[in-house]
Amino acid sequence: MGDARIVPMQAKRPGAGRSAGHLHAVTPDGAPGPLPDDATPSQIEQALAEGIAFLRRRLDGDYQVDEFGFDPEFADVVVMNVLRPLYKRWFRVEVRGIENIPDTGGALVVANHSGTIALDALMTQVAVHDEHPEHRHLRMLGADLVFALPFIGDVARKSGTTLAANPDAERLLSSGRLVGVWPEGFKGIGKPFSERYKLQRFGRGGFVSAALRTRTPIIPCAIVGAEEIYPIIGNMPTLARLLGLPYAPITPTWPLLGPLGLVPLPSKWIIEFGAPIPTDELGDGGAEDPMLVFDLTDQVRETIQQTLYSLLISRRSVFF
Of 71, 208, 249, 250, which residue is the least packed, with the fewest Cβ within 10 Å? Predict the structure, then answer.
């Protein structure tokens, strides 16, 4: 699958592979997939048995992580199964262009960012894993704040998220991983609802430099639907500063409805992966050419923006 160099925590028992312990049905080609809605009693029984086996391995320390702390079994069994109901039932995500993601080798997925809370990144991770025939893991690049949060930081690292720094991105890409980046950062997810689907600045093009140095393709990704889950109609900057957060949003339901305000609105999502932009023919010194980096960054940004406009025109409504 092109996923990371594995560092064993204990000697691995025969048969304890990537899909062991995953609550899934096995597809005809042997790849793991989610348990079907019409699962038979025997399939449910098998899934429960695999779940118990998973818990036993975790208690025994019989699992593997890579050099970045990524735990593929934890990602498959825990993270994907927690996120999948949101993906399938709540947001009803429609995926387009999944064939543009290569079956093997490194590639950089670059997407727009929105939604107050970065659920768009998590839904993209599920989309790649569940919809791609090779069930690849999207190794996301996250901000420092993600890893500073208790519990969330540990879960993020175990599920494949790595610090958004060029050295880490280049190591992942060079070793054949699929990497995801949201270059708008907090400017994207924290922008007011009046600025929805208008891309913010893409930084200084660090993600382009990483792709150029590793000669890996860039795959533009447009996400429609995330802007509407927590519409930001105001901000509380004083509270944000006190809490050390980039923003403290006010939405139609938060903080007015208390904990209920944390429930995202059930918008209909579309995630479209565009045609890969090759970088392997741009020369060894491309990453050191600021004009080339700027032009390629602008090309990626414009491609995503135009795709967003196209998707917005074609969708029937926000919720259907």
Answer: 250
Q: What's the CA gap between 255 and 260, in Å, rounded?
A: 9
Strand partners, 34: 24
Give CA 21 to chain center in angstroms: 22
| pLDDT (tens digit per residue) in 177-221 | 999 999 999 999 999 999 999 999 998 889 999 999 999 999 999
CATH 3.30.230 describes domain 85-314: no
Specify the pairing of strand 270-273 against strand 218-224: antiparallel
CB atoms within 10 A of CB 104: 11
In contact, 219 and 195? CB cutoff 8 Å: no
pLDDT digit string, tens, across residues 56-107: 888 777 778 899 999 999 999 899 999 999 999 999 999 999 999 999 999 9
CB half-sphere exposure, 284, CA atoms < 13 A: 0
Measured between alpha carbons, how far is 121 from 313 in angstroms, rounded to an integer?
23
| Relative orientation angle of helices 206-214 and 290-314, to the nearest 10 degrees | 110
Strands 162-163 and 138-142: parallel
The residues of the chain that CATH labels 3.40.1130 are 85-314
Determine the Cα–Cα distance for residues 147 and 169; give it in Å rounded to an integer.
16
